[in-house]
Amino acid sequence: MKTKAQLRMSDDELKKLQWEHDVLEQSFEKVEAERNELYAKFVKAIHEVQQKSSFKNILLEKKLGTLAETLEKKDAQLNEVLAASNLDPSALSIVSRKLEDVLDSKNTAIKDLQLELSRVCKAHNDLLRTYESKLTQHGVPVSELGFRPLETSVSGHVLGQGTAGLVSAPT
Q: Which residues are CB-contacts of 154 (< 8 A; sequence separation ≥ 6)?
């Protein structure tokens, strides 16, 4: 009787363990399928990135070739001009240096003018805001003006919206 009771308990425990084993196997199969799916997605994403990067590399190589051809043409034109002007090779480096200096000064002037434009646009916008606040302060709605003053912007960006109202450079 005692042995039969132990046998029943062992059978119950065996059934319970078999059930747990089945549940764990199903869970394992589910996790394994999910892992395989994620791996397949990962491999697909890697292939897409490789294709995109190789396509971009091809485009960049073509652009580089085009730019190299343009540079060669410009170099040939410059050499023709220098040959026609009968300058010696030492004068070539002087002319090149002077050209670089002129370009640098022009670029600096452009940056200075862009900064000045930014400052003027910010001052204009600040003046508009002050004007509108004074109108509101005196009880005159801005809509009664009959027109809407335009805020100035450079490169599509409204200036003067930087941190602490500082002039923000156009991007």
A: 114, 117, 118, 121, 170
Class of residue 156 by CB neighbours under 10 A (exposed 0-12, middle 13-18, buried 19+):
exposed
The model carries a pTM of 0.39
Confidence of residue 166 (pLDDT cuts 50, 70, 90): very low
Q: Where are the domains of the chain?
A: 1-86, 88-163+165-169
Residue 147's identity, in one-letter code, is F
Give residue-wise pLDDT tens across range 64-96. Answer: 999 999 999 998 887 788 778 776 667 667 777
